[in-house]
Design a protein that fits this description.
With 195 residues, the protein is of the alpha+beta class. It is built from five helices and six strands. It has a four-stranded antiparallel β-sheet with strand order 5-2-1-6, with no helix packed on it. β3 and β4 form a beta hairpin. The protein is globular and about 50 Å long.
């Protein structure tokens, strides 16, 4: 006998996250470079559902073209960010997709051009998303704190941890979440669960 999974017709994130893990890591590096440059995490989404969306999308396409041209001329790594040009293209394409799926006009109501309740709910949540560092929707219910250690491993903590030599120390429940590389400023990564 074998365990059954009823996954027919369901999305398979492993097609990207596992099969294309290097490309996915490069995409994350682009987002991290933007944040390190001073952009808010959700800066790119601030024009969703506004009259400013067409301007942002036009500039976004220009960025895609600049990275494509540099790549086609043989330059693989962007001089400014140190990230792969095609990862910038992936990131910018992702921004455009998010705008198309959640922006103005709403793709769910192509007749009236009005933003539907689902998309308006997304737009209303954007300010809250800007303020958080971690994907709290994915955290276990008991997790009250999130932080990364010096190896850039994300952990969820039940109780507020304290600084150790190269990691956070805490009693209670602890869960490993994700590893992405080296974290130079791990002592600045502690975040409480948003209320």
């Amino acid at each position: 006998m074998s365990a059954k999974n009823y996954n027919a017709g369901k999305e398979r994130p492993s097609l990207i996250l596992k099969d294309m893990s290097s490309a996915f890591t490069e995409l994350v590096k682009v987002r991290e470079a933007g944040i390190a440059k001073g952009y808010a995490r959700m800066n790119w989404a601030e024009s969703i559902g506004t009259d400013d969306a067409p301007r942002f999308l036009d500039e976004n396409v220009d960025s895609i073209f600049r990275h494509l041209i540099a790549y086609m001329q043989g330059e693989k790594v962007d001089q400014e960010s140190g990230c792969h040009h095609m990862a910038h293209v992936m990131c910018r394409a992702g921004f455009a997709i998010q705008y198309d799926l959640t922006g103005n006009p709403c793709p769910h109501d192509s007749i009236t051009g009005q933003v539907c309740d689902d998309c308006q709910g997304y737009i209303d949540r954007i300010p809250n998303q800007v303020k958080t560092r971690y994907p709290w929707r994915e955290a276990p219910e008991w997790a009250m704190w999130g932080a990364r250690d010096s190896s850039d491993v994300l952990y969820w903590y039940q109780f507020k941890p304290i600084e150790g030599d190269d990691c956070w120390v805490s009693g209670g429940r602890i869960l490993y979440s994700a590893h992405t590389g080296l974290c130079e400023n791990w002592k600045e990564t502690l975040e409480a669960r948003p209320k």
